[in-house]
Amino acid sequence: MTRKIFIKTYGCQMNAYDSARMADVMAPHGYAVADSADDADMVVLNTCHIREKAAEKVYSELGRLRVMKRERASEGRQMIIAVAGCVAQAEGEEMQRRSDAVDIVVGPQVYHRLPELVAKLGHGRRVLDTDFPTVDKFDSMPQTTRVDGPTAFLTVQEGCDKFCTFCVVPYTRGSEYSRSVVQIENEARHLVDLGVREISLLGQNVNAFHGVGPDGEVWGLGRLIRYLARIPGLYRLRYTTSHPRDMDDDLIAAHADEEKLMPQLHLPVQSGSDMVLDAMNRGHTGDDYRRLIERIRAARPDIMFSSDFIVGFPGETDADFEATMGLVREIGFAQSFSFKYSSRPGTPAAAARKQIAEDVKAARLQRLQELLNEQEAHYLRASVGLEVDILLEKPGRFEGQMIGRSPYLQPVHVVAPGYAIGDVARVRITTVMSHSLGADLVSSFAPAAVAI
Ligand code: SAH
Ligand code: SF4
Ligand code: F3S
Asked: Mean pLDDT, the chain, as a whole number?
């Protein structure tokens, strides 16, 4: 009998990857993916604990599901509710105590056990598994059977040993772990066979990657990228999220000499103040970051940078905040994420005196976001007139129109008769929209010319 599973994803791209893998794990047990909870036999909330707001969303969603589950029960039908992801890892036990609706709590390192956990349910029994087993979960998961267009995520590294003082990730995801190169290569080849043309390598600190290579040696991310770039049919590689401290020479060199590695880098800096960076335990100064950006730009002059920022970290003064604004102005980011500091239980910064008032955080965030938005708009405007290759990802809103991505990750709209999703088109950027670009085909370029 076919059952339906609905998986709702919160948080980062690694959660998105994990959700797809949970679907793969459940498929052989008769579960097909549903688009909503409405007629699903099982609902999985794949949760995020990074900021308070993210975690709260889960509790309100659980409230709604609880009502649905009751209604189902009154009709004699079952609805299994599972909570996965980082909230499950951090407070799964308490969650089960607080809500009788939660049947399964499953931590991020044991998704391969989901079918077993489902099998254990029954007669009012509920289960929790938040182990960090030594067995490689990736070994125990089946190959994916579905891809969503020509781009895909591939997790190569998990966990974090950096312990930034504001962050829950080292607690929810455990210590750093890298998959083996062979395992990654197999998955990448399989994705390409399914039609994927661009792979984003993922990790909480993806450039801390140190996986065992086919030669038995430990490989860094630069070497992995060069190796994967040899896969026929794979046009593009990206990676995220990187830590400034882990940008080694070989990875920077790969930006200079590996054509398939896209000129785009998300490199979170969090703050421009040395005092705050130190209190955050980031392990570098503002100037270290500036120098690093220079070195990467020297390797790949057209590289696009994006970043993450936290405002209102405990003890952040007006001068500290201005230092962040100064750094942003100097470097110029094409697109960034910025957040008010959110105090997370169990992290050192949560216990710091000198927490910053909400209204101060809000005012700083607004100023920072205005500046970042200006920079984003400037970056988009500066693209007009450029000729770029775009990878066509999906149909556009109008007949014949398609949406692709430039090497710099910008969405580009183009009318491209004769082209198919997954093709690369050479275009000239003509117009700017709020977060995307419009372009015309460069006519001398035929899709077949890019087949690799
Ligand atoms: N490993 C990445 C970040 C992963 S978390 C890195 O080191 O850069 C993604 C982003 O969430 C962080 O870059 C940070 O800007 C933000 N973040 C993490 N914890 C936060 C907190 N407690 N409050 C506000 N923002 C936070
Ligand atoms: Fe969190 Fe810092 Fe690790 Fe990034 S490097 S996941 S911010 S502890
Ligand atoms: Fe959130 Fe966990 Fe990712 S806390 S950002 S889902 S690693």
From this structure: 94
